[in-house]
TrEMBL record, chain A:
<dbReference type="GO" id="GO:0005524">
    <property type="term" value="F:ATP binding"/>
</dbReference>
<dbReference type="InterPro" id="IPR013611">
    <property type="entry name" value="Transp-assoc_OB_typ2"/>
</dbReference>
<keyword id="KW-0547">Nucleotide-binding</keyword>
<keyword id="KW-0813">Transport</keyword>
<feature type="region of interest" description="Disordered">
    <location>
        <begin position="1"/>
        <end position="23"/>
    </location>
</feature>
<dbReference type="InterPro" id="IPR027417">
    <property type="entry name" value="P-loop_NTPase"/>
</dbReference>
<dbReference type="InterPro" id="IPR050093">
    <property type="entry name" value="ABC_SmlMolc_Importer"/>
</dbReference>
<protein>
    <submittedName>
        <fullName>ABC transporter ATP-binding protein</fullName>
    </submittedName>
</protein>
<dbReference type="InterPro" id="IPR017871">
    <property type="entry name" value="ABC_transporter-like_CS"/>
</dbReference>
UniProtKB/TrEMBL annotation, chain B:
<protein>
    <submittedName>
        <fullName>ABC transporter permease subunit</fullName>
    </submittedName>
</protein>
<feature type="transmembrane region" description="Helical">
    <location>
        <begin position="119"/>
        <end position="149"/>
    </location>
</feature>
<dbReference type="InterPro" id="IPR000515">
    <property type="entry name" value="MetI-like"/>
</dbReference>
<dbReference type="InterPro" id="IPR035906">
    <property type="entry name" value="MetI-like_sf"/>
</dbReference>
<comment type="similarity">
    <text>Belongs to the binding-protein-dependent transport system permease family. CysTW subfamily.</text>
</comment>
<keyword id="KW-0813">Transport</keyword>
<feature type="transmembrane region" description="Helical">
    <location>
        <begin position="35"/>
        <end position="59"/>
    </location>
</feature>
<keyword id="KW-0812">Transmembrane</keyword>
<keyword id="KW-0472">Membrane</keyword>
Amino acid sequence: MNPTAGQPLPTQQPAPHEGRTGSQVRELRLEGVTRNYGAHTALHPLDLTVHGGEFVALLGPSGCGKTTALNCLAGLLPLTGGRITLDGQRVDTLPPEKRGFGMVFQNYALFPHLTVRANVAFGLKMRKLPKAEIGHRVDEVLRLVRLSEQARKHPGQLSGGQQQRVAIARAIVLEPPLVLMDEPLSNLDAALRLEMRTEIRRIHQQFGLTTLYVTHDQEEALSLADRLVVLHEGRVSQIGTPADLYEHPANPHVAAFMGYRNLLNLTIASTDTTGVHARGRGLELRGTPATDHPLSPDQDVVVAIRPEDIHLAQHDDAAAGPGIEAVAEVVEYHGRQLHVEALTGAGDRIHLTSTSPVHPNDTLSLTVPADRALVFPREPEELQEATG
Amino acid sequence: MTSTLSPPGAGPGPSTPERVALRHRLAERGVDRTLLLLLPGLLAVVALFCYPFLYGLQISFQPTTGGTLGSYRAFFDNSYAVGSIAITFKLALPAALINVGASVPISYRMRRDFRGKRLLLALLVVPITLGTVLTAEGIVEFFGPVGWFNQTLRTLHLIHTPLTLTYNYWGVLLSLVISGFPFAFLLTHSYLSGIHPALERAAATLGADWRQRFRHITFPLLLPGLMTTFVLTFVLAFAVFPSAIMVGDPDGRTHVISIEAYETALERFNYSQGCAIAMIMTALMLTVIALTMALRTRLYRGATGGKG
């Protein structure tokens, strides 16, 4: 793991990685990076500082501006506004070939007429390095991504996972100050995706490369990144470590992305020092405010709860207070647990997991620990989302 | 199909599995009713190409004098007639190369969207709709001794005496370029759009400037398509006939092989030798096509990742 993840670098020296000097870059700074398409703003001013050796994931649904941000960084899209600096040097005015960033494309973009070896050597050849050094470096990288056997093949003869590894090898052989990855795993099947995820993390650690990774898969982002940037409609929703986002999402949108599948529109009934009491739509529960602003009675709120934090009420905790009554509709078998979709009297859908047997049409009495129900103030534009 | 209906004794055992319907067995080998779709096209090819070709071929071997190969011998013994081969190549090869060469940068630029792209596209393709006669007329007017072209050059004091660009080699070459370019451009344009733009972007992020991107990525991927384009425009130019007469010098510098064949068959009424010349013309075109295609097989011809 990178010990400096998520914090400003305290020292001049980046952490060493297995005898390598690690990432040569100390700080990549995006200041107010903006991109418009005509009247449409795909990316609102984005400020972000990435430290050397850090793995940062840009996370969001499709159309949130994450790929736009990556293409702006790579130089494939000109900025509408703002600046990008690398260790104080301005790079946003340079063409892509002068930036020297490695990029892994969603469709890999391997050169179909070149062998695996020639694909990987391409960048080194463009830099006019001596032949012997090119050969040596290509061999080393191919060994690292375990493709030495495939070196003479053409990309068309490789499997998806192998092509993916060639794309990564081609980007990292240059030991670029920054590696950009655009949903590199989205074209792979589920098993391969898990395998490649570990591979990417392994390569990142081994090379100590500064990486910016775009994905719409929150699990991928959480497991890979040192820091996450959640984007929503071209704006930053939250920046933080995986644990920050997982435990303390800044708004219902981030919460929904972090696995809080239940977003309930309720109204504050009362507040006290230990939390808030919310009710509405036939439900009543206690929750924890997830905002700095104090919540007041009668305020509209969104309560976010993970499926695994909703439990079937036991007989002896009737004293725990009012809960949720719902009728199980769909029960999915997931091995050690069941995923249940239940309908409340007011027609809200509740997602929960259960380890004890549940059958469709069972009436369930549910409880939620107060510290696991996050209460967000409801913004007018979040109304539709929260009900969805 | 009859092999599957072998006598029972030939089988390895008496308990052969239940026979699948004949229709399914035929379909396994690609024989089904969709084959009928080939019929109209095949009929046209046989009636309009195979039959006339074979008919001409046999006439070419039946001259009035000189035995089976008499017509061919007569052609090759006549230095004026044989010279038409070189003349035709000297016109068709440069015309095809100019057309392919000019269509590459233009289609390269046309990949991106810009203002007036559709208008430019229409202008580039319009010459297809112009007949040879109209093109020839235009060339005579525009490039003639007192045409706009020479007038402009004279006004700019670039020349003193007008350039002779009509009724000679240059007139025919111009005509071939004007009429052949739209085909070359349309083909190149579609080949180029078949190359995924991400490939060049990937090359850019790997440090390749536009020249290197073109040289190492786009051009190698485009080359097989360019060769096909070259062959097509070459064949079009090799069969040049009307413009060689209208804007050329049909008895001298533009006495191309098709004129030689026409004059032999329809002015000197030697059908056999006329057919022989047509066969020689066919053989020459096939040779160029075969050479180009042989070169092409040595290149990468797989997927280029794009929509083409």
